[in-house]
Amino acid sequence: MAEELKDILSHLNKNISQETLLQYLKKQLSKEEQHEVEQQLLDDPFFNDAVEGLQDVEHPDRLSLIAEALNQDLKKRTQKKRTAQARRQLRPQWWLYFSILILLILLVLVYLALHSRMGN
């Protein structure tokens, strides 16, 4: 799961990497590559809306920093969730199992002791 969520912008569209998207927003792609990205925008309205929102950023050179900050925040949040899930999972309580075993052994011994007294 951690590898799947490595780059937040790459999940807008599986066919376009985060790096390619950032280059598109900074206008660093060739005409052919730009056309390919724009073709993907036409196919996916959510992706199109997200890219339009990213194009409204005042300083496109800061998009890499914004993406990195989002990725780090996403990593922190998913790590917190994984840690919370690990805490909620039931772990074997060996001391409890051992205590129950000792109690059962004691009950059997008491039963045998009482049964042998009554038999005499």
Poorly predicted regions:
1-5
> What structural class results from the helix and strand content?
mainly alpha
- Counted beta strands: 0
Beta content comes to: under 5%
Task: Please tell me how large the radius of gyration is.
Answer: 31 Å
Mean pLDDT: 80
Categorize the overall geometry: rod-shaped
Percent range for helical residues?
Answer: over 70%
Biggest sheet, in brief?
A: none
Number of domains: 2
| Total count of helical runs of at least 4 residues | 5
What is the end-to-end distance?
Answer: 68 Å
- How do the helices and strands follow one another from N- to C-terminus? HHHHH
Question: How would you describe the overall organization of this protein?
Answer:
- With 120 residues, the protein is an all-alpha fold.
- It folds into two domains: 8-89, no CATH class; 93-120.
- The chain has five helices and no strands.
- It has helices at 18-25, 31-43, 45-55, 63-88, 94-119.
- The chain is rod-shaped, with a radius of gyration of 31 Å.
Which tags fit this structure?
120 residues, mainly alpha, 5 helices, disordered N terminus
Short summary:
The protein is mostly helical and 120 residues long.
Topology of this protein?
Elements: H1 18-25, H2 31-43, H3 45-55, H4 63-88, H5 94-119
